[in-house]
Sequence to fold (604 residues):
Amino acid sequence: MASQAVAPAVVRTRSSGTGDSVARFVALFFATLLVAIAVLLVDQLFVRSAPARESLGWGFLRGTAWNPVTDQFGALPFIYGTVVTSLIGMLISVPMGLGAAIFLSELAPAKISNALTFVIELLAAIPSVIYGLLAIFTLVPLMRTYIEPFLKHSIGQVPYIGDLFSGPAYGVGYLTAGMVLAIMTIPFVISVSRESLMAVPREQREAALALGATRWETTWQIVVPYAKLGILGSVFLGLARALGETMAVTMVIGNAPAVHTSLLAPGYTIAAVIANEFAEAGGKIHPAALIELGLILFFLTIVINGMARLMIVATTSKGSKRA
Amino acid sequence: MNLRTWRLLVNATMLTLTGVCTVITVSVLFVILGLLLYHGASSLSIHFFTQLPKPTGETGGGMANAIVGSAQIVGIAALIGIPIGFIAGIYLSEYEDKRFASFVRYVADLLNGVPSIIIGILAWALVVLPFHHFSGIAGSVALSVMLIPIVTRQTEQFLREVPLALREGALALGASKWKMIATVAVPAGSKGILTGMILGVARIAGESAPLLFTALGNQYWGGLTEPTSSLPVMIYQRATSPYEDWNQQAWAAGLVLIAMVLTANILARMVLAKGVSLPRG
Fold:
C-alpha cells in the first residue's frame, strides 16, 4: 500500500500515466481470469452432472449398485472407498510424518535437517503414476504373499476387529491403496508440520528445559501443543491430497464397486472410477453420474483444504504475535 | 531415581523413534530410484526413444510418440499457463486492491487443491465436448489450468520478498509503476519466480489423470488436434496391461519420466533457488 500511495505523487507524465493504467488493467484481467476458471469449473461440474442429478436424485448418494449397462448408478461404494483408503493412509502417515518432522525440527542439526527436507520434497515431486507403477510390481505381490496372510492369521482371529482382516488375500484392495496413499502424503505432513514446529519460539523450549524437562518432554508437552494447529493443518492438507489422488490408487484398489468390511477386499474410489470409465462412458446418464461423483469429490476436497488453510494461517499469525 | 531412569528411557526411546521415522521416509526415495533403475535400465535402449509402439503381441518397439507427445502437450500448457499465472501473480503482489486480491489468492489456493482428475473433467467439457473428439490440445488446456495457480502463487511469493525500498527507490527516481515492476521488482525476484515456473512445469509433466480423457493416447504419431500419446498415460496403460514385455516398457518409461522430473527439480532448487537476487548482497 505504501508504494502505491507514493507512486502517483512522485511523477506523472502523460505517457507513463496511460502505461500505468494499461498495465494495471492487464494485470487485473489475468487475475480475474483465474477467478473465471474457478467459476467455470464449478459451473461445468453442475451443468454436466445435471442429467444424473435429475434422474437419480438424492438416492444416488445411498445407492450401492453400479452397473452402467443396466443404468444403475450408486455412489456409496466409491465414497466409502475414498474415505476408507484416505483414513488408512492418514493413520500411517500422520504418526510417521509427525515423528520425522519432530526429528527434523528439534533434533537434527540445521544442515542435516535441510538436506533431508530437500530429499523429502523430492519425494513429493514424484509423479503419482510412478508410485502406482512401483506399487503394482512390488507392494501388491508383497501384500499378497506375506503381509495380508500374516494379518489374517494374527489380527484376523480377534473377534470383531478380525472382520477387517478377513477374506482372500488378493494383494489389491483398500489396505494396499491406503499404504500407497500413506507414502504419498507423508511429505506433505512433514513439510508443513516441520515449519510450524520451527515457528515455535525458542524461549518455550528453553523454559521447559530449564525446569528440568527432558528433550522429549519438552517436545511433546510444550512444543507440539504450541504448534498443534499447524500440525492439524498439515494433516488436513495430506487428507485432501489423499482423497483426490487418482493414478496410484486406480492401479492398486482392485476396481470392485462394492462396500466391503474387510480392508483386504478390493474396492473402488471416486477418482479411480472416473479415471477408468470416463473416456468410454456412453449414453446420457453414465458420464453425468461420473461427473456428479466428481462434484462430490470436489466439495469434499474444497472443505478439507479450506480447513487446512485456516489452521495453517491461524498458527503462523499466532506465532508471530506471541514471539 | 526410578522415575528419573524411566523418564530418560522414554526420552531416548521416543527420540530414537523420530529418527527411525525420518530414516524410513528418506529411504523411500532411494528405494524408488533403485527399483526404477534396476527394472527400467535393462529395458531401456535407443529403440525406446526412436521407435513407435509395436502392436499387442509383438515384442520391442519404443515410445517415441509418447515422448514427443508429452513435450508438445506440456509445452503448449506452459505457453498458456505461465504468462497467465505470472501476470496474475504480479497483480497479487504489486496491485493490492486488498479485498479482491485476497479473494483471487483464495481462489488460486482452491484451484491448487482441486484433484487433477476433476481438472480433466473441466477440459473435457470445454474442449473435447464441443469438438467431438479427444485431442492433445484438450490435454494442454487441462495441464495449463493446473499450472496457472502454481505459477501465480510462486510469482507472488517471490515478488513479495523483494524489499519495498527497492521499489520506492525506482519510483522516487521517476519511474512509472509498470516500469518499476518490469525493470526492478521482477528482475530482482526473477530467480525465485523462474524456480517456481520450472517446478510447476515439472509437476504437470508427470500428470496423467487429467490426460486420460482429454489427450487420451495414440499408437501412432498424433497431431495436437488428434488424440496424443503422453509418457505418464503410457506408463499407466503399460503397467496395467497383462503383457510382460509391456510391463518392462512401463519401467523404462518410468525411469525416463522420473529422470526428467527429478533433474528439473534438483536443478531448479539448487541452481536457481537463491530467492531474491539483489544488486548487492
Summary: The longest strand of chain A covers residues 66-67.
